[in-house]
Design goal:
homodimer; 549 residues; alpha/beta; Rossmann fold; 3 domains; 6-stranded mixed β-sheet; 5-stranded parallel β-sheet; 23 helices; 10% strand
Chain lengths: 549, 549
Amino acid sequence: MPSSVIDALKAHYQQLSQLTLLDLFKQNPQRAKDFTLESEGIYFDFSKNNINEQTLELLLNFAKQQNLAAKIQAMFNGEKINNTENRAVLHTALRSNKESILVDGHNVMPEIKAVRAQMAEFCRKIHSGEHLGYTGKKIATIVNIGIGGSDLGPVLICQALKPYRVAGMNIHFISSVDGYMLNDILADVDPETTLFVVASKTFTTQETMINAHSTRSWFLDKTANNTAAIAKHFIALSTNTQAVEAFGIARENMFAFWDFVGGRYSSWSAIGLSIALYIGYDNFDQFLSGARVMDEHFSQTADLRKNLPVILGLIGVWYNNFYDYHSLIISPYNTRLTRFPAYIQQLEMESNGKSVNKAGEPLDYATCPVVWGDSGINGQHAYYQLLHQGTQVVPMDIIVAASDKFSNKEHNDILWSNAIAQAEAFMTGKSYETAKAELLAQGVVQESASEIAKHKVFSGNRPSNMIILPEINPHYLGMLIALYEHKVFVQGVIWDINTFDQMGVELGKALAKKVLQDIESRQISEHDGSTVAIIQHYLNQTTQNKLKS
Amino acid sequence: MPSSVIDALKAHYQQLSQLTLLDLFKQNPQRAKDFTLESEGIYFDFSKNNINEQTLELLLNFAKQQNLAAKIQAMFNGEKINNTENRAVLHTALRSNKESILVDGHNVMPEIKAVRAQMAEFCRKIHSGEHLGYTGKKIATIVNIGIGGSDLGPVLICQALKPYRVAGMNIHFISSVDGYMLNDILADVDPETTLFVVASKTFTTQETMINAHSTRSWFLDKTANNTAAIAKHFIALSTNTQAVEAFGIARENMFAFWDFVGGRYSSWSAIGLSIALYIGYDNFDQFLSGARVMDEHFSQTADLRKNLPVILGLIGVWYNNFYDYHSLIISPYNTRLTRFPAYIQQLEMESNGKSVNKAGEPLDYATCPVVWGDSGINGQHAYYQLLHQGTQVVPMDIIVAASDKFSNKEHNDILWSNAIAQAEAFMTGKSYETAKAELLAQGVVQESASEIAKHKVFSGNRPSNMIILPEINPHYLGMLIALYEHKVFVQGVIWDINTFDQMGVELGKALAKKVLQDIESRQISEHDGSTVAIIQHYLNQTTQNKLKS
């Protein structure tokens, strides 16, 4: 990393960290305006952060020295920026309307558009009743079988857009290999009216494939072994034609995607078919076009100082690498975004949770923080205690929709007043003197007030971003997700890491195969003493307890 | 804090941190045995931690100097250990069979047992059909209206124990003030067969009360304004008789609890009534007695070196205060425990997210870490990348049930092999040499293998605990939750903080009232410039968009 820029940022940190957020507001009466961006309908207030104009200037310098602008173009143009896997990174192409994007001289847009058309046509058939279940009934339930990127996106997006669903359509998700989850969901669905969507690029993902096969067995059991019916009730989101056909899925019901789409960036691809089946293809198309608006903002229209993903990303770097705040909380104030933190958690941590740079050299600085969170209003009654009065500072992204036609005004006003007030409280805090005066005003006697007030002090100076969407609809949800995708990209460029591989998931997978072999054969191979003892404990327990086989 | 103990721990850390977990296993072939506890059916392997016998000895010394044993007795005996609120802390009494526990010379056990009997009797009436809905139909759906401690416990426990539910019974939870959540759930329930359980100690919690009142309006709307029917369909978990009766709830359908029960410790109290209605009172009683077994283990039978909550708590302190690992992940490998991390997140962070000691003096050491997590097997496909290869170390608690009669053996074997293999992978890691040799064996050419292997290195030496329950049933779930309750207590004693208040939630609540007033009156009072601008933005948006009123 360019050391002069870093040194300048370090020196600036030494100065700026002497000032509180309230000091910064006092210094600049225009601060709220200076540090709010309004673009494409999104209102992004980042004024309650420990930054000033100089901070941004230095951070933008840093970004320039890391060639951010050129790297953005490289991604959008299909260059092989996923260097360890020698792949292009083109989730943006999935929502593009361009005629041509070349990868190795090959135009990928025609095949992307062909799959979109295939998805639209399949949705039309399902929703019109042209494609019926094996007994002639209309499909009324989708069961998405997938894990990780094939699960979190569809879960979030279907939950967030439930009010837009096709009338009468239900959706369930089987992700964990835990047989209870499978049995619990299958107990609730009707084989005659359910479509199972098996989402696995390679058709070999361990969890997904055992769930798919167990579901297939259940289905055959329920249909008196009607193997022909499988073609009407199972579809595949995969590229492995042979395995898909062997499973009994018709070739025309296989929806392809490509190696330039990572799992955590795949909701825009055929992986989104469950979403499109649930909310209708037109709404899915709105979701794509919302993301496209953000793509254009990020890569074409906005200069770096006014670029939402750039600013959001740089603020994160500032806290992570200079303030040493190593966790980030995402707090949506809207029930429909309850799974948004889980989605962003994967997006950020799987993308940027790396310890070597693109060249493979070990880093001497921190990369991705722990990203976590849940519904904000619920968090207030749970973990916000630590955020206000704990010993570590956790920067927060508050996400809220201004209007919600599926709520009620009185409820929405309360929800909003809480979102706003929490950001204010984190920043302003409360002094010992104020706390004591309040206690005295409540009639607490002097001596008690002096003691209890010590526990009612809030240090304040805790930062937050406020991201306001006009409403939660397919368009703005697409924009919001794309905003974070590009934020992650920006940080990956700053940290000089490959954001698009995930080598860290391999070791556990390999060892799991070995342990499974030990369990199945009841022969324990070589491990540390603890692992051996635990395998033995499991074998002892399962001998004592008869499980369904 | 006693500085000699801390100095000894610091010196020990300097030595021990030179050794990896694998080194420690090499040093002591009996390590797995030495650092595994089996008690009351729980198998707790803590050998994959950066500790040795000396670490434990020093940490136990620390606990002794903090008078842990005496403080445990003080809690169980009803002393007013919640010093800032001058209250006893007696969630343990809620599951006790003792004849007498005195608070201020008053025996609380008779009233605790009376509420238990009232709960059991109410469950009998609902389940037998003696208490019917207003049109004479049996109650088939419970809707729990509560937030924080009145929500997270019932949500977790009902989800975990769904296979034990009373036949035909459903349950829903309304927690957020977001009107969408309310409308979405009310759209799915039948007023004739639904019982609404309003859980708010004071009957003034803002979110809960507006949800309760909106539900009441919906109910009256559906029943042609049948106010008498309210008594059959609404019950209250509260101590505010006057407000409860004004709402229209019959006095006999009000279930009380006491100021010695904190919200996050209240599932064992009348707050558990939704649970008992869902799983039946006998199962709820098993849940209580499971916790009682852990209470006895913690306070009576186990010496500190063999005491599950003590060891679990001390290991957390070791990482938090000596290794500077400031986040903890909870990874249940069981779908039914998916909400367990959220429950423990509240329990730990609301209890111990404090910055002053019991005397109100500012601390110069870290207290509670950020606690987070989700289903472990799903995490493997999401955020485990960072846990394996990121720049920060996150200690993990893995929780798994040995046997699961509601699963299938093949699925359970795979689930288990993953849980075991992840712990192994975190500890062992993978060297550059091994990674390169594997690539060469796969046929990758020398030059590429040398480069790519750099990205496939796992540092290893990442710690985890393994907590194995025989199965997930009411008994063991009660034990598991009590285990963490006591772990939190142990850490509070070490950190010398009041674990049982939550002053940090007050400021946001107070400011929210002010902001709400601004919104309702459309007159913005004094705030920082950012807060003013955001309130104005909201007012502008809601003027443009007509919401349901």
